[in-house]
Amino acid sequence: MKRLYRIEEGKMLCGVCGGIAAYCNIDPTVIRLLALAAGVCSAGTALLLYFGAAVCMPKRSDIFPE
Question: Which of 3, 16, 48, 64 is a good FRET partner for 9, with 20 to 30 A between their CA atoms?
Answer without folding.
Answer: 48
